[in-house]
Amino acid sequence: MRLRYHFFSLTIILALYLAILVPFTDSMRHKPVLEKLGIIPRAEVLQYLSADQKQLVAASVISKVIMYYGGLFSDGSTLFRQPPDFLAMSRTIHAALKVDPYNMDGYYFAQAILAWDVQQYKIANDLLEYGMKYRTWDWSLPYYAGFNYAFFLKDYRKAAQMYMRAGELSGNQSTMSLAGRYLQQSGQTEMAIAYLSAMEKGARDPAIRKSFQIRLQAFREVLEVEKARDRFKAERGAPPGSIGQLVAAGYLERPPVDPYGGTFYLESDGAVATTSKFSVAGAEQARKKGK
Amino acid sequence: MNSIIAVTLKGIFRDRVFQGILTAALAFLAIPSIATLSMRQVTELSITLSLSLVSFILLLLAVFLGGTSLWKDIERRYTFSVLSLPLTRSGYLLGRFVGIAIFLLLAAAVLGGAALLVVSFVSSGFPPERPVAWGALVAAVGFDALKYILLVAFAVLFSSVSTSFFLPIFGTIAIFLVGGATQQVYDYVHSQAGQTLAPQLRQLATALYYVLPNFSAFDLKVNAIYALPTDDRGLLFTAGYFVLYSSFVLIAAAAIFSRREMK
């Protein structure tokens, strides 16, 4: 009798538990961004709070950001379900790297995602130079910084210094010679493609790999337009006025597609640009402006 | 005193603490899969997690074994029968401390071995950029054990004055937190930013720095995780610091305990 009573009450509780589980997990999934990422205390406070577990605290904070970022892609589409809070991610990563300045995941994520989407290149490079003081053996930090200097900041002298340093540390001559080849305005797109392909090959996290693939796709489109533009100019003696002209004249098979949702156009100096500025945030801004 | 050490160790094993450690050590099995969440430093993350797990288990042992051992004896009135034996009170107190210290070393050896196994397994699958610094890894576990033995000395000191377990447990946790922060506070006070503080406050912080234990000297995690070279001379100083500081705390505890009125 007693056994039956226990069994009965357990079954009811289990049924209630299962009934609440679905709405419970659903409400957890749709929590606001800030609640999910959490408000990370200032780095100085975090340092004291983490006692002798600094590396663990930093690693868990960084993995929180990576999982949040991965979750944005989870439905399998190439675009985000909701606009990501890049600034909150950036603040969080910076705080974690103050606590453990050696954590490579932090620098990698900052460079792979934040440098492009937050568009604060100076801050990104300050972070990388801070990391170089600690990870003195690591060639990838100066390599990233060199790319940022050359591609975003157009500071070719600084970029060359960084590439040289990366080459010395990796013992890889090709990094140095690559640097020489790409350190002019003309090689920008090829430099970006080479950099992004290398990054994409090394990416283990699916969300990050996907973001590299999208970016690569965008730059390959740019390269196609650039090649068509140069052929047009060589054959006709004058630069094309628009991308539409290139398509109409048969230099391009089809109009280029920006995977970020922006539109490609030719700037007055002939450079290929896109309204999205190669980021989802940029595409959204452009759309708002258009409205 | 030897018999007290033996009784302490037997008591710990009888309380199934060791089985508890082995159960907690099952968490090591999860480390390889958690470590693969890292994008660029899988082996480093496995070392971080292993060392943190070892450290956390040792902290619990230090606080609870150190904080409750003497209190339990007094509460159960064992001390009356024990102290009627031909044994000084200091001998009894030291015996309890040494017993717990030996158990901590044993636990550190077992957990450290498990950590080495986990790290060698992960590093064979995901070779790190720089080879794993096995020496630094062993040193990190060893110095962690020393740190928690010093913490046990504090727990014994608090037990020698307290009549309940509140002071030994919470006092020891407070010492653990304060000891981990002293070096940072000292560095901050003497940095450029610290110059804006009141001079009295800076002097007080400096004075406390020399009085309070400095646990950050025992923390070699960053060396073990990122294969940074260890400062052997500094480690020698740390070992000396450990011997002198824990002797000081234990002598103080023995002096207080010898004069304590037992009811």
How would you describe this structure to a colleague?
The complex is a heterodimer of chains A (291) and B (263). By secondary structure, chain A is mainly α. Chain A is built from 14 helices and two strands. Among the domains of chain A are: 32-119, no CATH class; 212-290, no CATH class. Chain A has a two-stranded antiparallel ribbon with strand order 1-2. Chain A starts with a helix and ends with a helix. In chain A, 36% of the residues are buried. Chain B is mainly α and 263 residues long. Helices cover 76% and strands 0% of the residues of chain B. Chain B contains eleven helices and no strands. In chain B, helix 1 (2-14) packs across helix 6 (89-125), helix 4 (42-75) runs antiparallel to helix 6 (89-125) and helix 6 runs antiparallel to helix 11. The longest helix of chain B is centred in the middle third of the chain and has 37 residues, at 89-125.
Supply the number of helical segments of chain B: 11
Order of helices and strands of chain B: HHHHHHHHHHH
How many distinct beta strands of chain A? 2
Query: Rough shape of chain A?
Result: globular
Model regions low in confidence, pLDDT < 50 over at least 5 residues of chain B: none
Radius of gyration of chain B: 20 Å
**What order do the SSEs of chain A take from the amino end to the carboxyl end, as H and E?**
HHHHHHHHHHHHHEEH
Mind summarizing the main beta sheet of chain B? Answer: none
In helices, the fraction of residues of chain B equals over 70%
**What's the gyration radius of chain A in Å?**
24 Å
Enumerate the strands of the largest sheet of chain A in spatial order, edge to edge or round the barrel: 1-2
Strand content of chain A: under 5%
